[in-house]
């Protein structure tokens, strides 16, 4: 800036100050800053802005309307709510991800009660709550429903501990409710008809998801609810909804954009119709849903009725067949119509032939997930390097892939790194432990090395198969943007983990199971742990003494040792120095006081 420009801006500032009367320049600037920060929506950008100086720190806190808590034990509700006073939406995560695979005790913790109690006092205007891997009770939901009179959205993912009585409180008391989404969540049946508790007049519902529920619902009440919810765009049914009931709901809500079909297999025969006529009958309901772009469900599918979805396939951008055990021919009959598809979740029952069909049709595919029908390590898997290579050659816009298989080659992984350089997420899960390249018998080092070298936007990586320390050297050398790394049954020595901890500056979440990493590797990352969200190690070679040394040297780090037998699902008796899981995370608070007997906090 020139001297004249400086004088010009100085005179403007003086003029502004005189016009603002009693407001000092700092207050005027802070008001302007708050106005600008209102438009900053990215969480990481706001975090960076808050670190500029104290005035930016204050302004950012005052203008933040969404609060994200990545670990419910990293900060107390009191501390979080004292800093952020204008929050309208809260996102809270609880248990580590590997709790989904029975590798943590069910009573580990992550309770919603302290959070909802504090929220009720701090944010009476709260509109949205998103919870993931949190334990909550019916009383917690009742408190939530009673406390927030403008409440609009509740999303629960991998949660547990509550039932239909709690849902009835939310449905009855939250009169402005727009979103009620329950995904992969355990809901107990309290013999309460929660669907009938929604307002009897026109509702604000835009999204209703309960496909995870394992109990029947009052269909007549659901049909009436859908009929008086003109804004409803997303509806995902559980497996108890029959084809006939699905047909009736589609007639009531042709405006749907996202549909979970439920079973797609509970059939109530329509009188005087054969299978083809009945399929055309259901097809007419789908044809009326011209806005449908996302389709899921099919939990007990009868393949003979799959042609009834053909009328909507051309517009689909997302198709979830991850509960649908169908063969390659049945899958091909659907996928050949899905030219706009961007997200595809499937079971490996479609085989390599199904993946080849998808690669020929879905040229705009951005995300692919292939799950196993049978996770047994000793069986011959139906998908392999053939399917992976076909996808990489046909779907070059791919950004995210999760691929379960029994065998793989370096050649196929290298081909994917070259054909899909925009990959952000690459998760390859070779289910047989320490499986080498199925053709050459060599380690899979070069394949994963190519992924981190050629896919320079990569932020999430999961590795498996026979890997030496060389693979981890590649990750440390080239994975400069990797934020989440998952390792299973891999590595030679402590050096492998040292390469990662010393070479990946953006690393936030590190998950390791059944790998030969010990105390030396653990201590190599001491300089990183305050900047990471967590380190999770199961069945590795770290000792209690090594963990205690980390705990003593880093007082703001919580070090939890878990004695738990995942196969038995029980607390391990015996030597208190033995443990199966190390869970290490940063926290601004003292260690929690709700840990079960199986957890020792150092």
Automatic annotation (TrEMBL):
Gene3D superfamilies associated with the record: 1.20.1280.50, Ribonuclease Inhibitor (3.80.10.10)
Keyword annotations of the record: Auxin signaling pathway, Nucleus, Ubl conjugation pathway
GO biological process terms, semicolon-separated: auxin-activated signaling pathway; SCF-dependent proteasomal ubiquitin-dependent protein catabolic process
Domain called Transport inhibitor response: residue spans: 86-131
Nucleus found in the keyword field: yes
Cross-referenced SUPFAM superfamilies: RNI-like
Polar residues bias locations: 12-21
Pathway noted in the entry: Protein modification; protein ubiquitination
Annotated stretches, region: Disordered: 1-24
Amino acid composition bias (Basic and acidic residues), ranges on this chain: 1-11
Ranges of residues in domain COI1 F-box: 26-65
Pfam families for the chain: F-box_5 (PF18511), Transp_inhibit (PF18791)
UniProt-listed InterPro entries: COI1_F-box (IPR041567), Leu-rich_rpt_Cys-con_subtyp (IPR006553), LRR_dom_sf (IPR032675), Transp_inhibit (IPR041101)
Subcellular compartments: Nucleus
Protein name: Transport inhibitor response 1-like protein
Naturally occurring in which organism (per UniProt): Trapa incisa
Lineage per the UniProt record: Eukaryota, Viridiplantae, Streptophyta, Embryophyta, Tracheophyta
